[in-house]
Description:
Blueprint: H1 2-12, H2 14-30, H3 36-43, H4 47-68, H5 71-75, H6 77-96, H7 101-129, H8 135-163, H9 170-188, H10 214-236, H11 238-245, H12 251-270, H13 272-275, H14 277-301, H15 304-332, H16 338-352, H17 355-393
Amino acid sequence: MIAQDVGQRRAQDWYLAAAGVFAVGMAGTTLPTPLYGLYQERIGFSELMVTVIFAVYAFGVIAALLVAGDFSDVLGRRPVLLSALGLSVLSAGCFLGESGLPLLFAGRLLSGCAAGLFSGAATAAVLELAPPERRGQAAFAATAANMGGLGCGPLLSGFLAQYAPWPLRLPFLVHIALLAAAFAVTRALPETVEPRTPRPPLRPQGMVVPQETRGAFVPAGLAAFAGFSVLGLFTAVAPGFLAQTLGEHDLAVTGLVVFSVFCSSTAGQFSMGRVGARRALPTGCLVLTAGMAVVATSLLVESLPVLVVGAVGVGLGQGLAFRAALTSVSAVAPDERRGATISAFFAVAYVGISLPVMGVGALTLALGLRGAGLVFAGCVMVLTATVGAYLLRRPLRTD
């Protein structure tokens, strides 16, 4: 009886193991964040090039979503997760062998492709491995693994780069060791996809926004675009803001600031149940607006504590708005087009994490980091306040 209970408990815990794999994979995508300043010193490039290097990641994510977003439905979750882990190892190898911009670009592109594969396959695996009575916990575990992993990447590399030797190598060596452990766990995970005979052909799934969903898709997509642009700001140029505007050169502090944004995003997503799905999207947009106002204030008064408060605020708003936007888009999408519609939604979000951040980089050439940050904050505030006000008058369907 005891052995049977232990076996059942282990079976129930497989979804947590899958969430751990998800977190390790996503941590690699933000690992370079505190290190960009060191790369600038070593190789010599502008703040604009930092944002371009970062944005290459988003193109990798979008490509993976559009080309292979549904491959795990055909091949199974484990093969796709193992492929994503392999791409993550190759990405870390590019950073370890870094000898100039080409390898940095290659590392970021591979990291983006890995994240695109993880997003679908790992989320599905976490949900499918959970017993029915733990599906709610599994949904939160998937969210926490995604955002928590993204937050842990800069936290890990920031502390290692600041307090350990080999600042540009040790973070990636440690991550490769974590990936090796994740590889072993993935090999042991039960497969949740039944093989189909004959196997359907592997084809790019593409993306589409059906006519009947556009009324919800446009405001939801704009909210996701704005929220992800803020995440991009913190993960791409936060080290520059902290060092050049606030005079903070401790890489561990940089990691903690970025970590606070992603942890707050997780908390924001979790709080949707209390706020209510119908009110969560406009509320999230308005919280994000207020958070960006605080971030802008921190740049004006040059205060690190105020920046941290703003980071927590934008994280809460982004998480709340993002989960509500995804819920709304999923609710209105027709069954036969749901996967393609959600892919289009994520593509819009990841465009938000790339193009606006490159715009900030370009503005730094004329206005400096502080001026560029203030312009960016103003644009985000106008967009999110407008979307939030619109949705207060016209709430979207959520079921």
